[in-house]
Amino acid sequence: MGRKYKHLNQLDRDRIQALLDNKHNQKDIVKILKRNKGTISREIKRNRRKKHRSGNIIYGKYESTVANHKAYLKRHYAKYQGMNIEKDKLLRKYVIQGLKQHWSPDEVSGRMEKDQKTFYASKTAIYDWLYSAYGQRYCKYLYSERYTPKKRKKKKTKKVLIKHRIGIELRPQVINNNEEYGHCEADTIVSGKKTGSKSALTVNYQRKAKYISIRKISSLKPILFNKAILDIKKEQVINSTTLDNGIENQWHYKLNIPIYFCDTYASWQKGGVENANKMIRRYIPKGSDISQYSDKYVKMIEDIINNKPRKSLGYKTPQEVMIENNLLLDRNESRNKKTQVALEG
Question: Fewer beta carbons below 10 Å: N end or C end of the chain?
């Protein structure tokens, strides 16, 4: 973690003055005070005495009490300088006249100081005033368009409010520790933005058995996501599932399954299904239009992954673990056994 910036105080400035009086250079001061060289350089340059003679600025000796007072005034009035232009009629008139002559805010500020006017505004204060409601109409006099304030387009995002949401912190420890079969994680894989397609994949992952099920859906509408999960539930035991906070999960309470939600931006809390998504991406790369892949192709991906020997399962396949633990329901068990025999053959 980077060091937090700390303003110089009176004691620091006393030490700077003492070191300068004893003919130490800025490198020595940086080492002794253990401060950034830029901090020391700016402090000496900005906060020493200034005298105006014949239109020229003459810099005087650095005095700690003067420097500390100048620094205080700058910090105290920095946020108000933009408004000061609006309040001071002479200052405002001078700034506008300079802008109309196509002077930059830096040139207006510098000339103001050179002419020893009774008023003053820094270039930053002038920019702040220009970007406020008071000075915006004078932005057209600025030389470079890059200083013209641009209206930022705010993305209109709908807040997804998930009713009856139960956070992952309330998920039982027996699930967290993978002590029981039948507890799942679910997620969606979407089509690439450039394709313009709304099609997606619903992916269900058995945490302990590492078994995946994939269903194509035409969009992320909650009703379609629920339909996919319920279709998967007909084929296997699902005692609970963990979801993220996506819009497709708004109707989770209609599934009649205990549902736990990850924290916002914490996809690692359902790392099993995230890893399954990566395996699926080998066959359906990112940016693809999912609508172009057939249900048969999607089922092939499912079968390949579920029949891979996994080290974490003692080199059994997820398919074998599901069958051994009676997690596949009767009407689908025969079909899966046929698939397994076909793959072995």
Answer: N
Which residue range forms the structural domain that includes residue 86? 79-148
pLDDT at res. 55: 58
Q: Are residues 57 and 97 in the same domain?
A: no
**47 and 190 both lie in a single domain:** no
Sheet holding 183-190, edge to edge: 212-217, 200-206, 183-190, 240-243, 259-261
Beta carbons of 220 and 310 less than 8 angstroms apart: no
User: Which tokens hold the place of 287?
Assistant: 């940016």
| Burial tier of 83 (Cβ tally within 10 Å: 0-12, 13-18, 19+) | middle
The model carries a pTM of 0.53
Residue 153 has a pLDDT of: 56
Which residues in the chain show pLDDT less than 50? 1-2, 145-149, 331-334, 338-339, 341-343, 345
Query: In the Cβ-directed half-sphere of 99, how many Cα atoms lie within 13 Å?
Result: 22
From the list 292, 297, 336, the residue with the least C-alpha distance to 317 is 336
327 and 291 Cβ atoms separated by less than 8 Å:
no
Q: How far is CA 37 from CA 6, 32, 59, 141, in A?
A: 14, 11, 20, 37
Q: Are 57 and 92 found together in one domain?
A: no
Does residue 260 belong to any structural domain of this protein? yes
